[in-house]
Amino acid sequence: MKQSFWKFFFLIWLVCISNASHALEVIEILGGKASQIPVAVIPFKDNNAQKSMQLMHEVITNDLNRSGLFSSIDISGVSDYPIDEREVNFSNWAALQSQFIVVGKIDAIGRSNSQMQVTWSLIDIYKEKTVLSVAIKGQPSQYRVIAHRIADTIYEKLTGSKGVFDTNIAFVKKLGKEKYSLFIADYDGHNPRAIVNSRYSIISPRWSPNGKKIAYVSFEKKKPVIYVQDIETGKRTLLANFRGNNSAPAWSPDSKKLAIVLTYSANSQIYTIDADGKNIKQLMRTRSINTEPAWSPNGKEIYFSSDRAGSAQIYKVDVDTNEVVRVTFEGNNNVSPSLSPDGKLLLFLNQDNGSYRVAIQNLLSNQMLKLTNGPDDESPIFSPNGHMVLFTYKDYGKVTKIGTVSINGLKMTPIDVGSETILESTWGPLSD
Amino acid sequence: MRLSWLENNDNLQANLFTLVIHLALFIFMIFSVNWQVKTPYYAEVELWDAIPTQIKPKPLIKRATPKVQKPQPSIAEKIVEAKKDADIQLKKKKAAELKKKKAAELKKKKAAELKKKKAAELKKIEQLKKKALEEEKLAELQKRLLEDEEVEKVQKKLLEQDDLERLQEELRNKDLAKETRIAIEGTQDLVAGTNSGELEKYKALIQQKIYQNVNKQLCGLDPLELIFEIVLMPTGDLIGGAKMIKSSKIESCDQAVERAILQAQPLPMPQDNRLFSQLKKLKLKFQPNGPIN
After folding, report:
1. Coil, strand, or helix at residue A281?
2. pTM of the full predicted structure?
3. Maximum separation of any 2 CA atoms in chain B, in Å
4. What single-letter DSSP state applies at residue A254?
């Protein structure tokens, strides 16, 4: 009786299994890799265009490579350059492991051929179709800007985030004894132009989120004071010249306020101040040092470094309630915080075994990733899309230089701005 | 009474039995029978360099020359008689002496002969001994050779046996596979049960190949899910691309995952038709930023 029951049960089970086998098989793929999209940028076919225009594909390739999300395909062995989808041999490009190719042509237009028109396409090799096809006009002298914009368009199409190749950076250069200059340049270091020249050291340049102003610390009053300068007009105003040191300006996301650090009453403390220098307020009152403020993108919190636990660590304070929470726990010291535009990543300097490295921490999982090897990396700041980091590093212990590192840690690229030492750097916002 | 106790005690019985068997084996190991069949080896004729001679030694005869005394001039008969007596006595003496000499000579001869014989015998013994030794050596060598041969034979046999066994096993496996296939083909209900290992294997292979291509950087940081459906050819290539059932709501992520599927072509596919039919149409579930809670 019992045996027959089990036999019956077994039969039922078999039937169930056989039924299940007829359903669609499901394969679950959990996670993925931090890989780079292989892309080939073919030299644009030039129809009587100027020579400089022929370098556009190099600018695009360098832009995409620097982001760490793309890897350029070596096309030195390719002889025929297609200019649109019809001319593309898909199997050949697939054999080169290329996922996308960028093709195009440059035509001279307008009166006496003074204008240029670049017609380019982004082609998907696996789907065998054109993803984007764009025509862009400009002066031959603007070829770098045009190339940056093409790279931005490709970047946005394939990553879903805005490209930062048409943005600016600012950096302070020590040009000689008592000769300091604050420069603005293209994001890759090209076209530098000085906006401040001083006999005194300039540090902590910070771009306002609306891109119109730059705040910086100058030592021209024999102590650090904070200036805000209009980029277009060059007009500057003294924002903070209080008793003690005035340093570390940080713009609020709406560009209306700044967080600054004063040694007004003994040690370094964080204050907030309106962009016109009014309405100064101390954020917290503690005996420990609180410095290097950085706003969260929603403007509700300020991240800062403090020695309240013995070593320097990063904390955040609620601007309204003044409630403080510790954020970093790994490493001997963690300093110089800043937030990614989506507020999900914290960027900072991590100090372990005597060397300072650029690191990021996922604020959801609290996982930390060291992006650079140090040993003397400084002033890290996110690119406006949060995919790259600009920072300064010591070149074999000699001159301080600047470079970018992708937040996946896959690509570190120096920015060539000359042989002089760099004091500090910052990244400007996206241009409208 | 005691015997019945032993009969009742199974454990002890077993132990005793084991002990006896072990003892028997031990004894057998010590006084083992030589199973080896000794094949007779070739008889060998040895040519001796020096054959012990049986030839009698030449008698060493010393012809003793009798001393002849010159007859003295007869003057008186007495003297003659006396001389005659003396002569006879001398003759007698001489004869005795000769006899003695002859006996001694014979003795000597005999002794020499004996000595020689003894030496020859000794030599013979020695040679015999030598021969025996050589023979022994030879025998040993032969034995060793034979043993080697035997070992080789045994090894060969074993190898052959191994091969045979392997072959048999292969055959058996083949039969089993055949049987399985027959079973699969016969009773469809059993398919999932008997073949799930292979199915899982191919699912894992497909999963691995697609995973390699998923670029999760294009999917932001938040947990999200995408579902695609694909139809495959037996070659592992897609028929009509990948159909998105559920979007991540991030275009770059959707695209990246779709590319990952396309790029993974051809997907690993089983040769078996039955198995392929199960993998022909697949639902692919992606969670690039880890599992959704």
Report:
1. strand
2. 0.68
3. 181
4. T
Phi, psi of B56 (to 5 degrees): -75, 140
Size of interface A-B (CB pairs under 8 A): 112
**Residues of B numbered 223-282 whose beta carbons fall under 8 angstroms of chain A's beta carbons: which are they?**
229, 241, 250-253, 255, 259-260, 262-263, 278-279, 281-282
Judged by CB atoms closer than 8 Å, whether chains meet at B215 and A27 is answered as no
Closest partner residue to B252 among A14, A34, A160, by Cβ? A160
Which of the 8 DSSP states describes residue B174?
H
3-class SS of residue A257: strand
> What CA–CA distance (Å, rounded) separates A187 from A390?
9
Instruction: Output the DSSP codes for A316-378.
Output: EEETTT--EEE---SSSEEEEEEE-TTS-EEEEEEEETTEEEEEEEETTT--EEE----SB-E
Residues of A with CB under 8 A from a CB of B: 14-15, 17-18, 20-21, 24-37, 69, 99, 124, 126-127, 158-161, 342, 344-345, 362, 364, 408
- Along the 293 residues of chain B, how does pLDDT read in single tens digits? 455 666 677 888 888 888 999 888 888 777 665 555 454 445 455 555 554 444 444 544 445 444 545 445 445 555 555 555 656 666 676 677 777 777 777 777 777 777 777 777 777 777 777 776 766 766 666 666 666 666 566 566 656 666 656 655 665 555 555 444 444 444 444 444 446 788 899 999 999 999 999 998 889 888 899 999 999 999 999 998 899 999 999 998 999 999 999 989 899 999 888 889 989 999 999 999 888 87
Cis, peptide link before residue A253, omega less than 30° from 0:
no
Query: Residue by residue, what is the 3-state secondary structure of B242-274?
Result: CEEEECCCCHHHHHHHHHHHHHCCCCCCCCCHH
CA atoms within 13 A on the CB side of B119: 9
Instruction: State whether ipTM is beyond 0.95.
Output: no
Q: How far is A12 from chain B (nearest CA, A)?
A: 11
